[in-house]
Design a protein that fits this description.
By secondary structure, this protein is mainly alpha-helical. It is built from 9 helices and no strands. Helix content is 67%, strand content 0%.
Length: 194
């Protein structure tokens, strides 16, 4: 696909954009772009297109693109003068929450909202690099290699920073999130990967 784009096939790039827009928007929102997420993603795709000559053929496109999205988000937040905490909270408030069916138990919906708020507060207490690694691994569901590529870190750094972040979240949250459906603790999803 990348070879076709490099050869000037506009439809091939359109296919790449369609295939990766969803995850790019989720990444922009997760890293704090909030209402600017669409602009960030558009700019990231433009910059990715311009940089395709430097893209390594053996690399995976998704983590490479998400690294550009991450950098564009950071640049947008910096140029707009927004504080990271405010933008992150707004992004989570505007995030794609699942629609709760009318037949859902209100107590279950309230508990889910409380759990989400607790997790959001705990994530805000992490350092920026810890938030980045947790976001990539769990919110964007990237494997360890993709996370390393997206963040530009060695895999060992991903492992150690993720481990420290999860320990900090566990200390902060303890059992506050309640039992995990998968039985894996507060951040159980995906812990066994990579």
């Amino acid at each position: 696909m990348i070879a076709r784009v490099r050869a000037g096939d506009a439809e091939a790039y359109a296919q790449l954009v369609r295939a990766h827009t969803g995850v790019a928007l989720r990444a922009a929102v997760a890293f704090g772009a909030a209402a600017d997420a669409e602009d960030v993603v558009q700019s990231a795709f433009f910059k990715a297109y311009q940089a395709l000559g430097r893209f390594r053929d053996e690399a995976s496109f998704r983590p490479w693109l998400l690294r550009i999205v991450m950098n564009e988000t950071r640049n947008t937040l910096r140029s707009a003068g927004r504080a990271r905490a405010v933008a992150g909270k707004e992004a989570r408030c505007r995030g794609a929450d699942p629609v709760i069916p009318e037949s859902a138990d209100p107590a279950v919906a309230a508990l889910a909202g409380e759990r989400k708020a607790l997790l959001a507060e705990a994530l805000d207490e992490l350092s920026e690099v810890q938030r980045q690694v947790v976001t990539c691994r769990y919110l964007l569901e990237m494997d360890e290699a993709e996370t390393a590529q997206a963040l530009g870190w060695p895999r060992g750094t991903v492992k150690s920073r993720l481990n420290r972040a999860l320990k900090k979240l566990e200390r902060r949250l303890g059992g506050q999130l309640g039992p995990d459906e998968e039985g894996g603790g507060s951040c159980g999803k995906g812990e066994g990967r990579g």
